[in-house]
């Protein structure tokens, strides 16, 4: 797909459902008793992989009028899959399901596409094996395909070396089946959807500082879930609204959970003209104040509408505990930094190297090809803003977030930006290009 400069982006937008929450809705609904109803489910390729895997384990999942119905079969109601479970491009499907499969009474094999099968799985194999699971990396390289033989599990306390919600969730989900309490301490707080949602499904999950613990429940109980819009998808339009001249975008119903909203804090720190509207119509300019307020009044996931306008931005430093709260947004934040005055430094983000692609190298290479001044470092990037971008051919290694980032770069650069593998946006945001076109002046 080819992109050329736009003179502005204007209008309202409803972002598709949160990917992390959509996955978990299907997984926990499958393990619950009764019918779980999911409103706002993200029908991207990743979440469809999760649905297909659970269907292969005997779970009835139907869609009617845009609502997904999952007929749960209880904690011990999954059946032996007849074929290899195809996890596609989805790390969340692979790692969270590995935790669940560790506690079953059967053997199952998980395998995905080339990118997925090269991502590190030792990070879950290690703690799940400590709990008693038998997991074989079939090529012996610590990656998928993974052959998982469920075993009786024992609860552990795991000190995770990485701040990863997928690792934390894999261990807590195995903890559903373990004897005794299972807990995970992480070096910085990663997204907490598993903890919030398992709690609402009836499990006893507690969080204290950086430690989450689960006591194995008798049962999980079906829920009606309203999936908020995905802040990781909204991020492309937040950045587009800030850097494209003459823009004003109102993005509705976005999840602003504090373990996910780091991009908004960074935008504020860079001087962005950004504001938030709560469900009563009150307007706020400080995301921390708003999310703190909403957390006190809602048990689940806080949401808000976001208004972004073209802004003069300045560079910033992004490091430490905020990194897990914006990890998936760093590619588009790197683009944002190209349009800010001064230097932006991203540190402590070595996890970016093991996402759907090596996002440090791929971002730095592709931004440099468009004329940006970017240096890739061991754990992030240094970006000197203010150098105009020009179009070129961009190959995204089929990484959806890289493709969406460069579409936004393309509408803010001279000449033509040709994204060679643009179809990969289907992984998380199938209507991305239509939404971008609709807002374009
Ligand atoms: C996710 C966790 C994050 C994130 C991914 C979704 C989740 O991965 O990058 O897109 O749903 O738990 P890590 O846990 O590997 O950081």
Please name the defining characteristics of this protein:
441 residues; alpha/beta; five-stranded mixed beta sheet; four-stranded mixed beta sheet; binds shikimate-3-phosphate
Order of adjacent strands in the largest pleated sheet: 2-17-20-18-19
Give the mean pLDDT. Answer: 97
What ranges have pLDDT less than 50 throughout 5 or more consecutive residues?
Answer: none
How many β strands by DSSP? 26
Describe the structure.
With 441 residues, this protein is an alpha/beta fold. Helices cover 31% and strands 25% of the residues. The chain is built from 13 helices and 26 strands. It has helices at residues 19-31, 45-56, 91-101, 122-130, 165-175, 193-200, 231-243, 262-269, 287-297, 330-338, 359-369, 400-410, 432-439; strands spanning 2-3, 10-14, 33-39, 60-64, 67-73, 85-88, 107-112, 134-137, 146-149, 153-154, 157-159, 178-179, 182-185, 204-208, 211-215, 224-226, 248-255, 273-277, 283-284, 303-309, 317-318, 343-346, 373-377, 380-384, 393-394, 417-419. A 5-stranded mixed beta sheet has the order 2-17-20-18-19. The longest helix has 13 residues, at 19-31. It is globular. The mean pLDDT is 97. Bound molecules: shikimate-3-phosphate. Residues 20, 92, 164-166, 169, 190-191, 327-328, 351 line the site of shikimate-3-phosphate.
